[in-house]
């Protein structure tokens, strides 16, 4: 600290010693110029300039996507917005702006810094209290196997009779520990107590060991075993901030996590535990509705058995049961519900994708309220671009229409650093195929025409801020294009993509909302409110043809369908939340 002060003092002295002051006036050419000629800040020439400048800034803000929402803020919401601006600024100055002492460079802090490094500090702020309490509306972009925090699931595996674990090699080296395939499953035969464990030289690949026993035999015991398994389920902070290694590298690790987390969705009692904790966690974060991406014909082992049910509907039946069960509880009674966007893997070959499309349509017929649309997932840069799948996508639309079912597209598109390559060009397909929303749209702001078309056609972008940070598209929230999109007038909402794998350790949206408000002085609480309102406006609550869908979006809160009703409910929550902000923080931050 001392050394810093010394340096800046020295610099200051050097600067002043170079300045020599002029007299009251100097002759420059034929002109006698005096500093007294500088107009007063209150002179009309300056005040006119300042006025024109303010009007210029205000007129640009009319283009913003949240402009209309801001125009309609209630007096309480305006007050809450002002208070939150003060909280944010106070914490930027007093919590975040922390120069690192010499020799401790890694402890440097600033507002909007990388999420993995900011997380612990976020939890200590008043802004966090505000954001976590806020009614968030809908979570529209999330992948089932990456939503529920894993501690609960590991404990559930531990507590479930008959669970065994095996690995594709002995966990004796760092490379093996980081890469071995891990299988957890239920068996109904008695597995003999093991004498050689996963971490030992003599372990024979794929030998199944009772999970409980494996946990206790692990060096360091159960806690160390869970910590190891979590390292195979969650992207480590030190890894996600290695921007020097690029996107493909982090995606390789990221995709390997799904192999491990898939285990929790494969056995009926675990799947039920997963849903119960997940839905309850979403409500804890004041989320009212969720649209989950999942698909590719998930198999499920019924309770007490060890083979997937031959019944393809089984997974979805359990899903429907758990949603209904939750909504019948006290905690779930105001929760609006869940729908699923069928998601195929874009890395599969075209025959398999077409095959799965037929599965998707079958499931749509069997579960018309649950299954709501279609998407392709996995790393967009490496999988088939949408243009290559155009024949299959057209086939899908034709079959859906022949079956008289509504299965609109909700494509991931433009989740890339590219410009003009196949991934970036997926955005054109998303708009041409009438995708109702775009997942990520990270490269959208580079396309003037597409920005216009997204606005004109009411296509909303599901922005996943922390996901983009952790997957190395943006170093931190300050480098994220979400502000550009909002400022250009594109409708956006905040989603969390893969919260439990991204180090959030919570299924909700609060961390993403926190990052976003930190990214911009233009946004504020009102901006977050508009983002939450958008999530409700663009929720796919019911099957609708394209025209009805657009009509309801345009009508918004004054429409007469389910959407308008949900928007009214959200507005009531928003007003009482704003009142809470005023009551709770008004005095302290007046
Ligand atoms: C300019 O006007 C403001 C407001 O009337 C006043 O507070 C301020 O002292 C004035 N400044 C100067 C330099 O006259
Ligand atoms: C054990 O699992 C097999 C295969 O799923 C099944 O056929 C059998 O009925 C199960 N046995 C018991 C006792 O549940
Ligand atoms: C697609 O993949 C499946 C499974 O790997 C394989 O059986 C099939 O031959 C492949 N089809 C084509 C056209 O490559
Ligand atoms: C298609 O389904 C809608 C309801 O989803 C129904 O009103 C309509 O009659 C159906 N049309 C045909 C041709 O089956
Ligand atoms: C597009 O460009 C980005 C940035 O160079 C790259 O990461 C990505 O892999 C590219 N996608 C394709 C399909 O080449
Ligand atoms: C949001 O969550 C808090 C804490 O769980 C709760 O007290 C509050 O009533 C919730 N607000 C809304 C609008 O649901
Ligand atoms: Zn996604």
TrEMBL record:
Its EC number is 3.5.4.4. InterPro entries: A_deaminase_dom, Ado/ade_deaminase, Metal_Hydrolase. It comes from the Eukaryota. It holds the Pfam family A_deaminase. GO terms for cellular component: extracellular region. Its cofactor is Zn(2+). Belongs to the metallo-dependent hydrolases superfamily. Adenosine and AMP deaminases family. ADGF subfamily. This is adenosine deaminase.
